[in-house]
Amino acid sequence: MKHRISFAMTLAALAATAAVSAHAAEEVTLYTTREPALIQPLLSAFTAQTQVKVNTVFVKDGLLERVKAEGDRSPADVLMTVDAGNLLDLVEGGVTQPVKSAALDSAIPANLRGADGQWYTLSMRARVLYAEKNLPLKSFRYEDLADPKWKGKVCIRAGQHPYNTALIAAMIAHDGEAKTEQWLRGVKNNLARKATGGDRDVARDILGGICDVGLANTYYVGHMKAAKEGTDARKWGDAIKVIKPTFANDKSGGTHVNISGASVAKHAPHRENAVKLLEFLVSEPAQNMYAQANYEHPVRKGVALDPVVAQSIGELKIDALPLTEIAKYRKQASALVDKVGFDR
Amino acid sequence: MWQAVSVLVALGVLAPIASLIWLALGADYAHWQHLMQHVLPDATLNTAMLLAGVGVLTLVVGTGCAWLVSAHEFPGRKVLQWALLLPLAMPAYIVAFAYLDLLHPIGPVQGALRWMLGYSSPREWRLPDLRSMGGAIFVLGFVLYPYVYMTARAMFVTQPAHLMEAARMLGESRFGAFRRVALPMARPALAVGLSLALLETLNDIGASEFLGVNTLTVSVYTTWITRTDLAGAAQIACSMLLAVVALVWLERRGRRHQRYGSAQRMRPIQPERLRGAAAWGATLFTALPVLIGFVAPAAYLAWETAKRLRLGQGISSGLWTSLANTLTLAMGVTVLTVLAGLIVAWATRSGVSTRHPSRWQARVATLGYAVPGTVLAIGLLTPALAVDAGVARMLHLPGLPLMSLGVVLVVACTIRFLVIPVGGIESGLQRIPSTLEQASRLLGETPLYTLARVHLPLLRPAIATSALLVFVDAMKELPATLLLRPANFDTLATWLYGEAARGTYEEGAVAALLIVIAGLLPVVLLARTQSGVAGAAGDSDAFAHIPDNPS
């Protein structure tokens, strides 16, 4: 019994010190599925500007489950993730709250945020074609990837990866499920190796002569092509050129874009700071950092791209299909990947 | 009292599993048609092939090496007998990506081969891709064989020589005696080592996903993450758990009526000196696993780290904090796990008047290892945070104190690794004759005093081995740590994972090297406990004249 009391007292003392140190300064707690190194510079800049300390928890899988389980005692203020579908999952899971902010509404186009302010886009990335740099290829449609002329020449990461399921979902929205299934089978037949690895492996395997073309995200191009001379990453980046594909059926001629975004947590203990952080992240200096440090496409108009990205990719023409529409077909896309045995 | 605490530990392990079952029951079964048709057959086949491959490879390499270093003398044996444990310090996912780099068409190995064969570009000639079933078996087999090697060697070293000698006199060849005497006697130990290796394989998500092998574990993740169907994922996980439990039960049933070993002081096997080609063959056979499972990937990491430092990219301060966090976490998990394991093993030891024949707590305690780490962590979330909120309300604290202090994380890792000390201490206890305890009790000592004065000294090697294994495992632990850690808390493994997820393996190499270096010390200590393993059998002089326990 004595032990139990002393344990409780120790715990109380520890928690009290934690609480005291917490209230000594303003703070905000961020739960993120994005790798800390990607967003740390942004958070440091935020702290420098506002004196608000940012606590981060990098949760790769299970962000929703964790926040749900923590319930109304959750310390989370801001939930940050990539992929529109994941953001909408958080909203549907009931762990977000609506936010009204003129600064956010003016910075972010209406189709890139929740109508009720439950989620906001912070940056964009497109799923583009990496091609061997000497290939005589000027334009490309996503549908072309199933063309038999690419047999044994295509590299791509697992079909079940969210980046790919989102693209396949967009495909279903544009071409219908039956055509998309055919397309998936075609791409599967063209694979030079198993659908696995990461996006940078596409460039690396193109350099390694395993394949000639592949689909991957834009910011990796910046990371690789802007890497130091002599590093492996630089060699991979220098082996490829980038083409922005379009959809065959789509009048707008846009490229498939996905996002990184954030919501304010439903039980945020520091709601004001949470909104402050979101507003900072779409401000001009922060959007510049997204572009320059992470090689992403800023969501705010008028912010310059990183020079390497500008030169190798350029401005994006976004597929007109709303993200919420694409997200509807996500599960169907995942089921299709199973059905055609894409990752086998 | 012992019983009560042991039941409490077992209930702690059951909590996340019960909450998983609850989750699984909460879903409809509509998606099972899709799963049965398109996912599970392939995933089950892949899992079975991977388990079979890794099982055969770890058994052959682990048992073969253990027998060679225990019963023979050959060049390099002294070093190799402990070096064979080194791959334990290597997380499988790190080895996978090291080999992917080493064996990539533009990597050093194929570059050298092309140069020798006179090809100029990988487009003209390249080796088959490592990203395949064979590659996954290769990587996991050479990382996990030490589990078998360790248990097999402990068994061979403590086997009495006279049995082997009798077999030889009856006309068996040396190999025949090994096959018909030493091997059958080592079977329970091999089963323990093999089941650890296979459960690690089943748990692995990093390496197999990285190498493009879609196992059942990968489909659990896909169902949960891509289809946001947690209940469906829980259903697959529970079905896997059932299969594991059934296998473990069958294995135990198979040797229900067998008794092994004895606590008598015996002359251990005298190593036989090998000569000429046989000696060098033995050296080669035992050196290869060390080279493949440790030296090559470690050298690669060291090379990558040196390259980074040469390019003037320093090591960030966050890495040192992560190192400190890793060691603290591993320490806490080790203490708690070994303590809980000791209590469970002691409370359920044979010879205690237990009315429940199956000693269920000890069996339950091993379940945590059979569930993929993230899934276990998800299962733990609900009960742990409910307790946490309760504690906070009772003490009038804000937020979730246990979660924010990392207590939940430590408990999760404890649940996951409990099988190691329970198994290790159980088999240690089995080799201590119950006559010792009876004598102590007859002399009027309490059970606690008996444990402290009689058993603990005898169990020291078993406890040390378990503790070091748990420590190394906790250092490498990734999935539960990713989900349950408090704010601003990174371990080397999560740091590395973050870097790898970002696609910057080069920076991850430094963290990976640190994991390996920090894991080396416990592995070397483990090797030293192992070389003194003759003591682990509890054959100190105290046993010199005690007759075998007639049970």
From TrEMBL, chain A:
GO MF terms, alphabetically ordered: metal ion binding
User: Which superkingdom heads the taxonomic lineage of this protein's source?
Assistant: Bacteria
Residue positions binding Fe cation = Y219, Y220
Extract the Gene3D superfamilies matched here. Periplasmic binding protein-like II (3.40.190.10)
- Keywords carried by this UniProt record: Iron, Metal-binding, Signal
What Gene Ontology terms describe where this protein resides (cellular component)? Answer: outer membrane-bounded periplasmic space
Against CDD domains, the record matches this protein to:
PBP2_FutA1_ilke
Give the residue range of the signal peptide. 1-24
- Which family does the record claim for this protein? Belongs to the bacterial solute-binding protein 1 family.
- Can you say what this protein is called? Fe(3+) ABC transporter substrate-binding protein
Task: Please name the source species.
Answer: Diaphorobacter ruginosibacter
Automatic annotation (TrEMBL), chain B:
Specify the ABC transmembrane type-1 domain's residue ranges.
44-249, 323-526
Q: Where in the cell is it found?
A: Cell inner membrane; Cell membrane
Membrane-spanning ranges: 50-70, 82-100, 133-156, 177-199, 230-250, 277-303, 323-346, 367-387, 399-419, 508-527
Cell membrane recorded as keyword? yes
Cited InterPro entries: MetI-like (IPR000515), MetI-like_sf (IPR035906)
GO BP terms: namely:
transmembrane transport
Keywords of the record: Cell inner membrane, Cell membrane, Membrane, Transmembrane, Transmembrane helix, Transport
Top-level division of the source organism's lineage: Bacteria
Q: What's any one GO cellular component for it?
A: plasma membrane
* Short name of one Pfam family: BPD_transp_1
Membrane topology listed for this record: Multi-pass membrane protein
Q: PANTHER family, alphabetically?
A: FE(3+)-TRANSPORT SYSTEM PERMEASE PROTEIN FBPB 2, INNER MEMBRANE ABC TRANSPORTER PERMEASE PROTEIN YDCV
Family in the record: Belongs to the binding-protein-dependent transport system permease family.
- Quote the protein name from its UniProt record: Iron ABC transporter permease
Upper classification of the organism? Bacteria, Pseudomonadati, Pseudomonadota, Betaproteobacteria, Burkholderiales
